[in-house]
């Protein structure tokens, strides 16, 4: 009898360890994902407000223009290029234009025609373009900056940000999903001791749904 009693007591001592271990894993994933997604969630929360009130936030765009004439040797290199649609500028031409405009031209695809080469170079919070006359070698460059808030808003939307930022957004989104799902599992685990858990979760779901249905026209 004593051996059976000791076995039962040992079994009862072991049972609570599994949920405690699973709970520790949830907490670990929860704080790791929150640490990874913290900056992203703050950025998207702040820019969510600025985007929602974009028409009320005044911005003063700053523009600069550069106009000059390309050297004859570069114009000759440009004239030798035969492109019907989109292709980068020759490296020599792109490097010279970068020096003249203080803007990295790189190997972006330009629009080629018989008379002109046009290059659009938008980015977050800014717009830029370059047009080169293939006959005279004259070029015009214009860049417009719309300010820090516009820059952050474009990061929020992923507008003209390139593949690296799009991958970053995906990683932030995955980390945020892990944060939310582990938070939900922790809510389930502790809901019995907190009676307002599910009413508050329901409110967070129902309130936006009702507003969207009833007040958005």
**What topology, given as strand order, has the largest sheet?**
1-6-5-4-3-2
Number of DSSP E strands: 6
Mean pLDDT: 87
Strand content: 15-25%
Q: Uncertain segments of ≥5 residues (pLDDT<50)? A: none
Radius of gyration: 29 Å
Order of helices and strands: HHEHEHEEEEHHH
Count of helices? 7
Main sheet: strands, sense, barrel: 6 strands, antiparallel
Question: What is the topology?
Answer:
Blueprint: H1 2-14, H2 17-52, E1 62-69, H3 72-80, E2 86-88, H4 91-101, E3 109-112, E4 116-120, E5 126-133, E6 138-145, H5 148-157, H6 162-190, H7 197-214
Antiparallel strand pairs: 1-6, 2-3, 3-4, 4-5, 5-6
Helix pairs in contact: 2-5, 2-6
What are the key terms here?
217 residues; alpha+beta; elongated
Provide a brief overview of the structure:
The protein is an alpha+beta fold. The chain has helices at 2-14, 17-52, 72-80, 91-101, 148-157, 162-190, 197-214, and strands at residues 62-69, 86-88, 109-112, 116-120, 126-133, 138-145.
Write up what this structure looks like.
The chain has helices at 2-14, 17-52, 72-80, 91-101, 148-157, 162-190, 197-214; strands at residues 62-69, 86-88, 109-112, 116-120, 126-133, 138-145. With 217 residues, it is an alpha+beta fold. A six-stranded antiparallel sheet has the order 1-6-5-4-3-2, with helices on one face. Strand 3 (109-112) and strand 4 form a beta hairpin. Helix 2 (17-52) packs across helix 5 and helix 2 packs across helix 6 (162-190). The protein is elongated, with a radius of gyration of 29 Å.
